[in-house]
Amino acid sequence: MDGILIIDKPAGLTSHDVVARVRRILKTRRVGHTGTLDPFATGVMVILAGQATRLAQFLDKDEKEYEALVRFGFETDTGDVTGSPKSKVQGPKSLSLEDVRAVLGDFRGEIEQTPPMYSAKKIDGKKLYELARKGETVVRKPVRVNISNLEAGNGNPNDGNSGLSAGTAGTLACKAGSSGLTDPVVDQLATEQNANAHQAGGTGVNSFTGEGACVTGDTVTLRVTCSAGTYIRTLAEDIARRAGTLAHLEELRRIRAGRFTIAQSLTLEQLAELPEPASALIPMEQAVAHLPGLELTDERIAKTRNGLSTRVRDANFVDGEAVKMADSGGRLVAVGRYDAEENIVQPKVVLV
């Protein structure tokens, strides 16, 4: 049982919880994932099963794409809706969508971010969130990340394609002229829209055009394409500060991780209901489809499985880069590293 699953993680579960459930459904212990999502976040989790777990190192640096609902007015200690307000003093809420869009250019491209205290980043062997829960704060060095695309817009609840339920609720509240606080009726409408979006394969926020629109119910939606390791909570806070206010994340949805999208995903319930859950596995070759390839002869396949290198001619590989090594039918045998000086590919991960 080797392959890849794209799971649409629900809010309220940790990434570890998702892995544990997939293990039970597939009835195998050999299951892992390629990138953590916070418990309150939803969306794409790339799950690896069987021998595919050995390929995680080639996926965890993949570009990610997110949709986020940002609520203006105050920051929280966690940077998201699960935390407590940092202060009773609220930032100004009178923003137009154009006010937000006007500052986005400062955050496109390569930028520096300071990792939040509520994160899994380790300093001196300790996870920051463990220190934060004890009330401790430590100095964190900024890290460089790349934001290749950044847009702001309002979700449209009328097209059945909104993946951010609170964004729908906020839009309804804005149309009613309210403060953006939801009520049970709005919450129910939002939930229904979110369910419809997943059934239709919708990816979420889709209205990122138009001028002079209001910031919906004190919220705005962001669509972000970024390098691995980007903190969307920090990005939202920094954007708000640049616009002269404060903010935190109310919802976060990952809609793409590398080549894998939300349209390919299954919920845990959908996976469990399949007569043969293993039938949902994507071939593990897809995990390394982005790597340059080397086709092996039958003779070299046996030697590769024994860890022996293969000499290549007229190689277009870059020294040190990962190379997928496959048979004539495209079946993955190993992933190796190219040595330009010796002009060989040395297998590093052999899939027996």
Short recap of the structure:
This protein is globular.
Number of domains: 3
Write down the secondary-structure element order: EHEEEHEEEHEHHEHEEHEHEEEE
Count the helices. How many? 8
Rg over alpha carbons: 23 Å
Mind describing the biggest β-sheet? Answer: 9 strands, mixed
Distance from first to last alpha carbon: 13 Å
Provide the structure class.
alpha+beta
What CATH architecture label of the largest domain applies?
2-Layer Sandwich
| Unreliable stretches covering 5 or more consecutive residues | 155-162, 166-214
What's the overall average pLDDT, rounded?
Answer: 82
What is the top-level CATH class of the largest domain? Alpha Beta
3D shape: globular
Strand content: 25-35%
Percent range of helical residues: 10-25%
Give the beta-strand count: 16
Report the CATH topology name of the largest domain. Answer: Pseudouridine synthase
Verbal overview:
The protein has 352 residues and is of the alpha+beta class. The chain has 3 domains: 3-62 and 261-287, Pseudouridine synthase; 68-252, 2-Layer Sandwich (Pseudouridine synthase); 291-350, PUA domain (Archaeosine Trna-guanine Transglycosylase, Chain: A, domain 4), CATH 2.30.130. Helix content is 22%, strand content 26%. It has 8 helices and 16 strands. The chain has helices at 15-26, 97-104, 128-133, 165-175, 184-199, 232-242, 268-273, 298-305, and strands spanning 3-9, 31-33, 42-49, 64-72, 109-113, 122-123, 126-127, 143-153, 219-226, 247-257, 260-261, 293-295, 310-311, 322-326, 332-339, 344-350. Strands 1, 2, 3, 4, 5, 8, 9, 10 and 11 form a 9-stranded mixed β-sheet that branches. Strand 15 and strand 16 form a beta hairpin. Helix 4 packs across helix 5 (184-199). It is globular. The relative contact order is 0.19. The model is unreliable at 155-162 and 166-214 (pLDDT under 50).
